[in-house]
Structure to design on (189 residues):
């Protein structure tokens, strides 16, 4: 791929360290992965106490009824997508720090992933737990996301138009910020 002259200029400009505008610094103030100069950094959790932390995340894979029926009858070309997605989500949670660059590696004490057939797709819930100085939200979100991607991979022979939607944190507990519970409807009937 070749760059136009304007792209080369932008690339050169991007390689120089340009000072951040005051408005940019203010917008980053609440973001813990930036220092006072606006540089990306890994958050130092050395002084934080280890506490019990739990997070639950959600994802949904929307699919046609015919695809759901095939999954229900375990007629997927690659085997049981619900069970493979569970294992993939658990494995992914344990490898979160390898996928998310500034995420701390954590010694997880528990990970559980469930995949439930619904009338219009598959609902995924992932829970991660650790005794740690930092939270496990990313581990739960990665588990739910990878489980959803695995459902897609396992079922793409049946339907390529599936949609992965509604990836979000449902709740978290522990740590300095305490408990968070997302408002609104999370479960599908």
């Amino acid at each position: 791929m070749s760059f136009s002259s304007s792209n080369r200029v932008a690339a050169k400009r991007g390689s120089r360290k340009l000072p951040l505008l005051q408005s940019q610094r203010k917008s980053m103030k609440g973001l813990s992965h930036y220092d006072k100069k606006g540089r990306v950094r890994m958050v130092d959790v050395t002084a934080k106490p280890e506490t019990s932390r739990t997070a639950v995340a959600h994802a949904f894979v929307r699919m046609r009824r015919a695809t759901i029926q095939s999954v229900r009858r375990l007629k997927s070309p690659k085997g049981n997508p619900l069970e493979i997605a569970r294992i993939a989500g658990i494995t992914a949670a344990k490898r979160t720090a390898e996928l998310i660059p500034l995420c701390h590696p954590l010694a997880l004490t528990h990970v559980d992933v469930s995949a439930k057939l619904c009338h219009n797709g598959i609902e995924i819930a992932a829970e991660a737990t650790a005794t740690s100085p930092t939270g496990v939200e990313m581990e739960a979100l990665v588990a739910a996301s990878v489980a959803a991607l695995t459902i897609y991979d396992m079922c793409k022979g049946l339907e390529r138009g599936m949609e992965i939607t509604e990836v979000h944190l449902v709740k978290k507990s522990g740590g300095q910020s305490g408990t968070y519970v997302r408002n609104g409807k999370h479960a599908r009937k």
Observations:
- The chain has six helices and five strands.
- Residues 1-15 have pLDDT under 50 and may be disordered.
